[in-house]
Amino acid sequence: MNGILPLWKPRGMTSHDCVFKLRKLLRTKKVGHTGTLDPEVSGVLPICIGRATKIAEYITAAGKTYEGEVTLGTSTTTEDAWGEVVESQPVEKTIGRKNVQEILNRLTGEITQTPPMYSAVKVNGKRLYEYARQGIEVERPSRKVQIHELMLLDDWKELVGKHPRFSFKVSCSKGTYVRTLAVEIGKQLGYPAHMSSLTRTESAGFSQGDCFTFEQVEEYVHEDRVEELLRPLGSGLSHLPKMEISDTLAEKVKHGARLEEPVNWPGDIEVVMNHQDRPIAIYQRHPEKPGVIKPVKVLFND
After folding, report:
1. Which residues fall within 8 angstroms of residue 275, CB to CB, at 6 or more apart?
2. Same structural domain, 263 and 285
3. pTM exceeding 0.85
4. Is 38 a catalytic residue?
5. Are residue 220 and residue 274 in the same domain, yes or no?
6. Are 42 and 9 in contact (CB under 8 A)?
7. CATH of the domain at 260
8. Are 39 and 16 part of one and the same domain?
9. pLDDT truncated to tens, each residue of the chain (302 aa)?
10. Which of 38, 155, 224, 268 is the catalytic position?
11. Domain boundaries, position 148
């Protein structure tokens, strides 16, 4: 059983809960997720089964799209709706759509974020949320992330009320904290804010229409149709360039051989080596030997 199961993660479960449940349902230990989704976040969570666990890091590193909601007027310890309120400043003025859109435009592109204290980022070998639960504030490393698209949803002209809400869509790189993005939007509007809901709508090319719910997985298992749940390894590598290779070259690639760099090699990026439309390895330029490419990972050696 080798492949990618695009799961629609329900709210109320951690990503690890999903892996644990699928191990029991599919009766296999080799199951891994592709990037943590907070328990209260629903959405696309590609799950790697069997040999597909070898490419989990590539799916994790691929772009993601979310639909979320910002609530103005209150901030929380966790930057979402499930933390304790730390600041409250009711909105006393009308906020126009144009004003919000201008802020979203400024936050599109490369931005710097500081991870929230309630996050899984490690500092000195310990996750930030462990410090947060002990009430310890530590210095957090900032990171640069890429916001590819940030746009408003729904058709409104003005935000009114003491705690107005609005929905947005964001396509972003790995490592982006959408909670922190929501807080920053509020800050630039002049108010405390938090992310009041979030759904991941796309991950590594998989969308909601590709996904299976746990109820559907159970049904397929009961009907002995598990293979129909799985997508091939190549579908998780769709964001990487591909190179189709010959039978002769494939034998060398399967054994992890270093090769002469092809004339049409795309540059200093990783490339999927395909044989008969199946990915068998991932290669890159050798860092020390010009004109040579080397394997990063061999996926199939049979």
Report:
1. 244, 245, 247, 250, 253
2. yes
3. yes
4. yes
5. no
6. yes
7. 2.30.130.10
8. yes
9. 899 999 999 999 999 999 999 999 999 999 998 878 889 999 999 999 999 999 999 998 888 999 999 999 999 999 999 989 999 999 999 999 999 999 999 999 999 998 777 777 788 788 878 888 888 888 888 899 999 999 999 999 999 999 999 999 999 998 899 999 999 999 999 999 999 999 999 998 899 999 999 999 999 999 999 999 999 999 999 889 999 999 999 999 999 999 999 988 998 999 999 999 899 999 999 999 999 999 999 998 77
10. 38
11. 66-196
